[in-house]
Design a protein that fits this description.
By secondary structure, this protein is an alpha/beta fold. The protein is about 50% helix and about 10% strand. The chain starts with a helix and ends in a 6-residue tail after the last helix. The relative contact order is 0.14. Pfam families: Amidohydro_2. InterPro entries: Amidohydro-rel (IPR006680), Metal_Hydrolase (IPR032466).
Length: about 350
C-alpha cells in the first residue's frame, strides 16, 4: 500500500525542509514526549506533586519544545515513552495503546513540522508479530514516519528472536529505517545480536539508539560500548545515536569514527533521551566537547595528540545535525519512491 495523500505531503514537506537547513540545523535525535491525556491517574498525580526524578518521568510535547529552545536545538526526533504506555495481556488492547502513543507523535509533528521529526514504535512481543507489522504499516503509510523503533530491553525479548527478524523485514519493505534500543542495560541486545540484524539487510540503514549505552553499569558496560563501536565500523549500514552513553565513551567513539573516515563519521548523531536525559545538559556538554576536540588539546587521548587537527572544519555540524538530516532525507526519498543516491 502506498503512502496516503496526507502522509505523502508530510514526507515531501519534511524532506524539503531538511534539505534547506541541513548545513545549519541542530537535531536532538532521541526524545520521548507523551500525551498528558494518556497518563494513568496515579501517574498524573505523581507528575503534579513529586519533585523527585524517577525513570521515565514524562514530558509533554510543549515541555519538549520549551527545553529545545533553552538548549538552542532546532529540531527533535520524537517517539513514544515506553514508561507511559502500559501493556496488559490482550494483544489487541496493547495495539490500541501503542497506536494512541504513536498517534500523539503524529499530531505533534503535524502541528510543528519545523521542529519535530516523528519516529514510530512497535512491539512484536506485546502486540504479536501480525499486529506489530500492522502498526509499522500505519506508522509509515498513514503517518509518514521514516523510522520505526523496537525496544527489546524495555519489553524483555531477545533481539535475535525470529519475531524481531519478521518485523524488521516488514519495516525494510516499507522503506523505513528499523531502529533499536541498543544498550548494555540487560541481556537482550548484545552487540552480536544487533550485528546479526544489520547483516540481514546490509544495504539498508539500521539505527542503534545509545550505541551500547542505555543505562548500563559503568564498569560492566564497557564491553558493550567497545563491541558496539566495533560492529558499527564493520557494518556500514549501522547508524548510531549517541544518547544515554557515558561522556568519556562518547569522546572515544567520536575520535575512533573520525579517524575511520567519512563513511564512518557520517553515521553518528547526538540525542538527549529526554525525559531520561536533558537537551540542555547533553547539547551544552556536546558543544563543549566538540570545541575541545577541535582545539586539539582538549583530550588526553593519544590519538588526538597524534592528530591535533582531526576535528578541523565543520565536523561539529555533522554530528549536531547534518548527519541525521541526511539520513532522514534519504529515508523520505525511499518513502516517496525516489532514488536515494
Amino acid at each position: 500500500m502506498p503512502l496516503t495523500p496526507t502522509a505523502r505531503d508530510l514526507v515531501a514537506d519534511r524532506r524539503a525542509r531538511l534539505r534547506r537547513v541541513r548545513d545549519t540545523v541542530t537535531i536532538d535525535a532521541d526524545t520521548h514526549p507523551s500525551d498528558p491525556a494518556s497518563y494513568p491517574p496515579a501517574l498524573a498525580e505523581r507528575v503534579a506533586r513529586d519533585p523527585n526524578y524517577w525513570q521515565g518521568r514524562p514530558v509533554t510535547g510543549d515541555e519538549l519544545l520549551r527545553e529545545l529552545d533553552h538548549a538552542g536545538v532546532d529540531m527533535a526526533l520524537c517517539w513514544q515513552n515506553p514508561a507511559v504506555t502500559v501493556y496488559g495481556r490482550d494483544t489487541e488492547e496493547n495495539l490500541d495503546r501503542l497506536l494512541a502513543a504513536n498517534r500523539y507523535i503524529f499530531r505533534l509533528a503535524s502541528d510543528h513540522p519545523d521542529r519535530i521529526v516523528p519516529g514510530g514504535w512497535t512491539d512484536p512481543k506485546a502486540l504479536g508479530v501480525a499486529n506489530a507489522i500492522r502498526l509499522a504499516q500505519i506508522c509509515v503509510e498513514e503517518f509518514g514516519f521514516p523510522i520505526v523503533k523496537m525496544n527489546p530491553a524495555q519489553n524483555a525479548y531477545p533481539i535475535t528472536d525470529p519475531i524481531v527478524a519478521q518485523t524488521v523485514d516488514a519495516i525494510v519493505a516499507l522503506g523505513a529505517i528499523p531502529t533499536f534500543h541498543f544498550g548494555g542495560d540487560g541481556p537482550y541486545t548484545p552487540p552480536e545480536g544487533f550485528a546479526s540484524i544489520a547483516a540481514r539487510h546490509p544495504d539498508h540503514p539500521i539505527i542503534g539508539v545509545h550505541m551500547g549505552g542505555g543505562g548500563s553499569h559503568f564498569v560492566e558496560g564497557d564491553a558493550t560500548y567497545v563491541g558496539a563501536r566495533e560492529i558499527g565500523l564493520a557494518h556500514e549500514n549501522i547508524f548510531y545515536i549517541l544518547s544515554a552513553k557515558r561522556d568519556t565513551h562518547i569522546e572515544s567513539a567520536l575520535i575512533t569514527y573520525r579517524l575511520a573516515g567519512p563513511r564512518a563519521w557520517h553515521r553518528l548523531a547526538i540525542g538527549s533521551d529526554l525525559p531520561y536525559g536533558r537537551p540542555t545538559w547533553n547539547f551544552g556538554g556536546m558543544r563543549a566537547m566538540l570545541a575541545a576536540l577541535a582545539d586539539g588539546s582538549g583530550s588526553n587521548d593519544p590519538r588526538l595528540r597524534e592528530n591535533p587537527h582531526l576535528f578541523d572544519g565543520d565536523a561539529a555540524r555533522d554530528v549536531l545535525g547534518r548527519n541525521f538530516a541526511d539520513l532522514i532525507i534519504a529515508a523520505d526519498s525511499r518513502l516517496l519512491g525516489e532514488a536515494t543516491a
